[in-house]
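Fold this sequence, please.
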Amino acid sequence: MSTIQVRLPDGSVREFPQGTTALQVAEAIGPRLAKAALAARIDGVVRDLTTPLEKDCDLEILTWDHPEGREVYRHTSTHVMAQAVKRLWPEAKLTVGPPLENGFYYDIDTPRPITPDDFPAIEAEMRKIIEEDLPIVREEVDREWAKRFFAERGEDYKVLLIDKIPEGEPITIYRQGEFVDLCTGPHLPRTGRIKVIKLMSVAGAYWEGDQRNKQLQRLYGTSFEKQSDLDRYLKQLEEAKKRDHRKLGPELGLFTFKEEAPGFAFWLPKGYTLYRILENWSRSLQEPRGYQEVRTPWLYSSKIYETSGHWFHFRENMFTFESESQAYAVKPMNCPGHCLLYKNEVRSYRDLPLKIAEYGPLVRYEPSGTPSGSRRARGMT
């Protein structure tokens, strides 16, 4: 049997039979590392621990201490949550479920809205799946086979997602027990590797972020290796709520948010006074440095954004509409308008640098359910 050389992070090189998995390398290094292993970085790419090593490579075993390790851990947690929902509501249809920095979510088309009252039943099923310690297996499959497979299971959204995968790219699925999901991975080797898991909240989210599409249930959760880490995280969230600007703003009479204008702040007298003080302070810094303040329109035809390229690459992040057979967009950034100002007269290199400042409203489209006060807003300056 051929052998390969595996270079480890400390610079040492070890020899293994060709086809040895990353997990087997971890086991050879030591039982402690093998127990902590969550995924592997092979030649710079994060992979499953069960990935066979076919050639000489650089290998790093990822644990909870690595951000990528935590991401894989929570990615698998997402699948456990989706599997639990499918067991409780077999007619539910899955869409996408990515890991987040401190948790994960899955957008699911459910026969009825999921509420926090359903969380205990879902969590109990999740714990059952973890206790079953199901092996998680990656498979590369044929495109047409995958479409038939998910269509037969009633997973219409998965069929749509397969159609969006460019030709020539591999189609991969992950199996754990009866559960099969379209996914690029990577994942933990077994469901039993997850130790602590909790559902956090549920919200509405439109398929593909388009309010013209059906509204789905976005189920949020989090997972940790230790209960003490979860307890600490929950305590941090409680402390953060006390200092949440969405709570303090109205209490201090600075600003407020209303469902009639999601993603936009209503500035109250005291808050707007502070706003203008900060704005004028910014002017006091810019003017001595040669900035000239201008004011440009907040509504443009699509032509300017076609020229700038925004229309083709960022249109889904803009508020657009049509009037008199012409497409328009509310201004999401100042630069195209400033380019028009630059064209307004003949310029010389001697005019450079030309410093322009503008304090005007900008609007960017954020899907329903994603705006979060001023941290993620639709309206900004």
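Residues 68-241 form a domain with the Threonyl-tRNA Synthetase; Chain A, domain 2 fold (CATH 3.30.980.10). The radius of gyration is 26 Å.
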